[in-house]
Amino acid sequence: MHCRKCERAAVINMRHHKLSLCGEHYGEWFVAQTDRAIEKYKMFTREEPVLVAVSGGKDSLSLWDALLRLGYRADGLYIGLGINDPAPYSDVSLEKTRAFIESGGWRVAKNPPHDELEIASSQTPLLAMTHQPVLHVVDIEQTYGKAIPQIAREKARGQGKPCAACGLTKRYVMNRLALDKGYAVLATGHNLDDEVAVLMQNTLRWQTGYLARQAPVLPASREGLTRKVKPFCRFYERETATYALVRGIDYIYDECPHAVGNLTNFYKTLLNQLETQSPGAKLSFYLEFLRARGEGAFEQFNKVDTLHACEVCGQPTSAPGRCAFCRMWDIEKLDVAVV
Ligand code: Q46
Ligand code: ZN
Ligand code: ZN
119 C-alpha to center of ligand 2: Å? Predict the structure, then answer.
């Protein structure tokens, strides 16, 4: 199979787009599509500082790479969860994240070279990249005194899995750091497969409130909350992985050990079977959902709760008193800055 734009062998064939591309042209197509999504959904502008939540995986590192190549003012936030048992997942993911940004590989095109001439021309950045990216690292154990598995065990949250404690902590730290450091927006690397798995989960249970809030952009609906965006929401997982590959991004292949066997992965497997039978099914499920949502199908379920300020940290919370994060971490008892 050949590239649509040149004679070289294709590295990817996207049946849903009827498009095959070589490494170089795929890299160009991918960043252009990223920019189109950012503009289409009005995610952010080139003037606004963006905080990218990076985990060391293919999606978040590819997102940071693509945003920098497009000339956005993108910095990274890595949250050290302390998940190193049975395998050193957190340690390796931090290593990969640091290596990515310190290597400066995002500065130049790094598609597999075909000849000398091509290497020379591929050294040109897409846009003038004047931004010097910063990586913020928040280590949960150093900041709050315990790693995620430990606090989850102590608080008996999540029936044996630390995901509830982890998700609550990550959401809080991301939002808080973005606000404290003056970022206009928080970007995550969720891809189409992630979004469609959640969509299916919410649809099967008709969780209309969740459906009303599932979108490429979640506006900062009130003071104390940051706008959240998902620029990769239209890319299949295979497409972000191929981008990481053609860009030479070294990422952590393993998932968090606690993700193994979770419900989201089960739905991903089901949806992959559907996609095999019917190419493009995932993309149209998602896009048709966005269309219906855009037409107001879920508007009535988008309830705006009355929020209170947490009496410890000041963040918005649904019940008066301490927020869920401060309660779980007993923040008033710890002598630490919140972030
Ligand atoms: S990191 Fe945290 Fe995930 Fe691991 S402990 Fe669960 S929530 S699975 S995205
Ligand atoms: Zn080509
Ligand atoms: Zn609080």
Answer: 14
> pLDDT tens per residue, the chain (339 residues)?
899 999 999 999 998 899 999 999 999 999 999 999 999 999 999 999 999 999 999 999 999 999 999 999 999 999 999 999 989 999 999 999 999 999 988 886 655 444 433 433 344 456 667 899 999 999 999 999 999 999 999 987 556 789 999 999 999 999 999 999 999 999 999 999 999 999 999 999 999 999 999 999 999 977 889 999 999 999 999 999 999 999 999 999 999 999 988 999 999 999 999 999 999 999 999 999 999 999 999 988 887 778 889 999 999 898 889 999 999 999 886 565 555
**Nearest ligand to the C-alpha atom of residue 28:** 2
| Ligand 1 atom 5: residue of nearest CA | 163
Residues within a 6 A CB radius of ligand 1: 162-163, 166-167, 256, 258-259
Please tell me the distance from the alpha carbon of residue 283 to that of residue 196, in angstroms, as a whole number: 8
**Cα–Cα–Cα angle for 218, 72, 53, rounded to 5 degrees:** 50
CB atoms within 10 A of CB 160: 10
Residue 279 CB-half CA count within 13 A: 7
Name residues with Cβ closer than 5 Å to ligand 2, which is an ion.
Answer: 3, 5-6, 8, 22, 25
Q: Could you tell me how far CA 121 lies from the centroid of its own chain? A: 31
